[in-house]
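Weekly structure sync - notes
Attendees: PM, LS, DV (DV joined late)
Agenda: review two folding runs queued last week.

Item 1: First target. Sequence and structure tokens pasted below for the record.
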Amino acid sequence: MGKRKKKTKNRFPWLESENLFMTHTGHEIITDAGWEKIIWRDAAKFFHQQTISDWRESFLEWVDIADLISAQQLNIDLDDDTAVDKFLESYNPPEINLVVAKAVYEEHSWVRVLLISTPDDEEPYFHNHEIEAILLGVHLRRYLNVHDIPIINDCQDAVRYLQGMYANIGWQPRNCVSVAHRLKIAQATKVYNEQTWEEEWSQTEDKEEL
């Protein structure tokens, strides 16, 4: 009597029903979003001056000014408004967390610096940053001019949002996007700041509409 063939179970049946899961082939553009801590001097190069000013204003609303002054080992009278304002106008943290989007395919390792991190505001909506990571993958695919390369991400909400707009976008679990997850800005073959991304993405979109 022959052996009964073992039935193969789908690991993610709830995703199969809405067509989010994409089978791993080893030839995908791998995308992910995350945080990276770098020194302030380097971080400031990625943003318009207005973006930095807006972030500093928001940041200073939620910190203890006395703690900042103490950390700098400065002797400033907290009752001297002029001295405190002067300190705050020039204050920069030694290090800062950035939110970054990443896309990796073969020798291409692209990073887009998205914003200066404010975790309390961004964590509930982090899928928005994963959407930007997928869009970075879309841009990489256009650059390669091979439009059938699959793009994967480990955020179901981000994949669900973009599937109807762009072809061959799918979900895979976190371990499948580890190469993008580990990518650092210093290792990238291309890094987009605020301005270069706006220029390149809009130019590409305009060309596709013609």
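Item 2: Second target, run right after the first with the same settings.
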Amino acid sequence: MKCPYCTSSQYFVTNSRVSGNAIWRRRKCQKCLGVFTSMEKITLGNLKVTKKSGIAERYDSNKIFLGIFRAVNESKWISRNKARIITKIVTDKAEQELIKLRREYISSKQIGGIVLKVLKVASNEGYLRFLPYFKRQSS
């Protein structure tokens, strides 16, 4: 990594914070004294999802995010902004569960089950709206 201001590779970390699946680090360049923030995030790039058709594809967190967001956002009691926040929390917690499994392959049905478990705790209405979608996809 290089300083975004002067491209020097001489910097030090002044602060670190854990946030969900990520670590935020505040860095200070020793050459130009510029301060910048970086984020290290655990990814599930090596995880393969086996679809109902038997085809395996690379894990994509955007697919989970959009599916959950559609379900949560349909509620007339939840604002779009709050739906986005709930979706982000549920997606992060579901990904933490997937990381704990330490698997190379997982079925889309198993991912849906994990999402349902996390969603039930975060938003009961979102859970009830996601449940029929999940059942339709898994049968």
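Discussion on item 2: The first helix runs from residue 61 to 73.
Action: LS to circulate a short write-up before next sync.
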